[in-house]
Amino acid sequence: MKLGVFAMIPQLNAKVLNGNHQHHQKAKKLIFKSQKSKVKTMLVCFYDSKGIIHHEFVPEGQTVNGSFYLSVLERLWKRICRVRPEY
Q1: Rounded to an integer, what distance in angstroms lies between the CA atom of residue 46 and that of residue 59?
Q2: pTM of structure
Q3: Which of 7, 16, 53, 76 is least enclosed, having the fewest CB within 10 Å?
Q4: What is the pLDDT confidence band of residue 68, given thresholds at 50, 70 and 90?
Q5: Is the separation of the CB atoms in 48 and 68 below 8 Å?
Q6: For residues 56 and 72, is the Cβ–Cβ distance under 8 A?
């Protein structure tokens, strides 16, 4: 088996070869402004050793309280019965 070698050699500009290039080029001034994230998403995920069983995103503005979590657990139970019937 024959091994190949790939080499990438950059081509130099003629001005650089002649020594006529500028050493000090004006740098562009970058302005970064910090902004709060407009979208925040929460993901509730249930998994086992075989992989993800159920996942769902929490709707915007919804708090994860007892009643919301109970509804998620009910959907999880239906999903487990369908996906992992051996459990």
Answers
A1: 17
A2: 0.53
A3: 7
A4: very high
A5: no
A6: yes
Q: What is the CA radius of gyration of the chain?
A: 29
- Asked if pLDDT for residue 5 goes beyond 60, the answer is no
DSSP letters spanning the chain: ---------PPPPHHHHHT---S-PPPPPP-------S---EEEEEEETTEEEEEEEEPTT----HHHHHHHHHHHHHHHHHH-TT-
Where does residue 31 rank: exposed (0-12), middle (13-18), buried (19+ CB within 10 A)?
exposed
Q: What is the pLDDT of residue 8?
A: 44
Q: What is the mean pLDDT of residues 26-31?
A: 64
Return the number of other C-beta atoms located less than 10 Å from residue 49's C-beta: 4
